[in-house]
Amino acid sequence: MNNKQSILVWDAPTRVFHWLLVICFSGAWLTSESERLQMIHYAFGYSACALVLFRIVWGVIGTRYARFSQFIKGPKDMIGHLKVLLSGHQHDTPGHNPVGGMVMVGLMFLILLIGLTGYLSVKEFLGDFMSGAHEAISSLALAFVIIHVVAAVMMSLLPKREPSKSNGERQKTGLS
Predict the structure, then answer these.
(1) pLDDT digit string (tens) for 18-48?
(2) How many Å apart are CA 50 and CA 35, to the nearest integer?
(3) pLDDT at 91 over 70
(4) Quick check: 45 and 115 in contact, CB under 8 A?
(5) DSSP one-letter code for 123
(6) DSSP code string of 146-163
(7) Confidence bin at 68 (pLDDT 50/70/90)
(8) Angle 51-42-48 from CA coordinates, rounded to 5°
(9) d(CA 11, CA 91)
(10) How many Å is the Cα radius of gyration of the chain?
(11) How far apart are CA 74 and CA 163, in angstroms?
């Protein structure tokens, strides 16, 4: 008998944040080489930064699964998660897994850094160095995005690990 319960993990603000960030990041990337679309590039970039700032606030005051305290874990939890993945399974927990949570935080940090280096580049602070840093950090963020998408697809294909049962529960169910 399977009594799976459906849980809405991602609330509306988190979902809207995610997809608006996808649009802003993609739009900024696609308009990055066009002088004619420079103002649109800036709008996408600054909007992405504003979204991340919103998400930081929502990560503190938001709903249960949106809060950073729910998914930012230490190295021990991250290593444990990776061991389970190497066994061909995944944790059966709602929300971000420990590694995914850290990747999300890293990606948000990179987006803010892209915005800062972009702004400083426009202000011609440190000349070409800041422009190069802006491009390099943007490429690194794109790599994070690709890893995020590939990991999301892979995680959807892995079977969920059965929750571990205590010895008492094993005996009650006849499992030994």
Answers:
(1) 999 999 999 999 999 999 999 999 999 999 9
(2) 23
(3) no
(4) yes
(5) T
(6) HHHHHHHHHHHHSPBPPP
(7) confident
(8) 15
(9) 21
(10) 20
(11) 21
**Closest C-alpha among 16, 41, 38 to residue 27:** 41
Question: Considering the domain boundaries, does residue 88 fall inside one?
Answer: yes
In a domain, residue 7? The reply is no
Residue range of the domain that includes 46: 12-162
What is the Cα 153 distance to its own chain's centre?
14
CATH of residue 25's domain is 1.20.950.20
Total domains in the fold of the chain: 1
Residue 56 backbone dihedrals phi, psi, to 5 degrees: -65, -45
160 φ/ψ angles, rounded to the nearest 5 degrees: -75, 140
Yes or no: say if 52 and 111 are a contact pair by the CB < 8 Å rule: yes
Closest Cα to residue 77, out of 57, 91, 63, 56?
Answer: 91
Kindly state whether residue 37 falls inside one of the protein's structural domains: yes
Q: Which are the contacts of 63, defined by CB distance < 8 A and separation ≥ 6?
A: 11, 14
Structure tokens at 35: 């002088």
Distance separating alpha carbons of residues 31 and 29, to the nearest angstrom: 6
Six-digit token pair at 157?
A: 């294909």
Tell me whether residue 17 is in a domain.
yes
